[in-house]
Amino acid sequence: MKATMKATMKTSMKTSMMDPTDNDGTDESVDEGVEADAVLADRIAGSIVGLAIGDALGYPHEFRTVAQVRREIGPAGLVDFVALKDRRFSRPIIVGTDHPPGTFTDDTQMSLAVAEALIVCGSEPDRDALMTEMAHRFVEWYFSDDNDRSPGAATGAACTALRDGTSWRDSGVKDSKGCGANMRVAPIGLYFDDLDTVADVARRCASITHGHPCGTEGAAAAAVCVALALRGASPPDIHAEVARRISGRAMALEALWSRIPWLLDRAPGEVLVALEDNPAGLGESWVAEEAIAAAMYCFWRHPDDFHACVVEAANTDGDSDSIACIAGSIVGARVGLAGLPPHLVSRVEKSKHLHDVAQRLAAARDRPR
Ligand SMILES: [Mg+2]
Fold first, then answer.
1. Domain limits at 348?
2. How far is the CA of 6 from the centre of ligand 1 (A)?
3. What is the CA(320)–ligand 1 centre distance, in A?
4. Residue 119, in any domain of the structure
5. Is-above-0.90 flag for pTM?
6. Does residue 318 lie within any of the structural domains?
């Protein structure tokens, strides 16, 4: 961990958990460092497990409307994991394999690929090595049996080009800005200490598959949100910092981002709908700028309540798994693993593996760079 991040965590620990009158002569700085590391590791795990929970909660809701899910599952919608083709659904319009409750999708699978690449060579000063490793892992996943959970078209085209020898610098689909660009970058915000590096690496990561500025800037925004939530930053501060960083870079993203504070008191049913139905809302999130704006809206409304945040994000007419995955990564980084509902933590797919990845990511973060 770099000194700046550790100092922030130490200050946070000292003000929130230490007794200011405690002066027994012991070396407090060592204890504080250990406690700060423990808090950081808990928050990294909260984000990794949190994004998988959000993704798994939203998976059966993708391609289904709020009205349909409320009618068939219950008035509260999806508040717990259900199977992709739960028999209560009247129209199992999702083609392909059924999946049991708690199954996550390509969003988590690609996030894990990014995390593993960071663990292997995130500390290399040469970014080309890191991007090549990420691209390699994307191809490996894309052509594996695990890839049976509705990945986006641009990701498919890019992975095919990469397999056929195209460099990661040229593999991105030029004008594509699907939310596949930003639903996978949370580990970048968890790994790097410096916010410029977080944004830069997230943009490069997005560009492997998506070339449109809204895709690359949406990824920078998502990763910076996670990095700041990890430090315990407030939603207004996170919003302001991201606004500053995307300024002048992607008009459609800036437009949606700027309207979030004015929509916080409006219900999701009014805000997270197609822009054709409400031009003043945030859209259905099939594209990058709408997905990160929707996730930020849900996080800002529930910054300290993981379950309320991801339930709101998952129960939408649009790209439910991606909105809830991004929102889960941000709120999870803020509240930590201790703030996640144990009944979802224990039942999400590959729970033990998610914990393991988070632990290794936290350990890798300590490497001197
Ligand atoms: Mg997905």
1. 37-79+101-364
2. 34
3. 8
4. yes
5. yes
6. yes
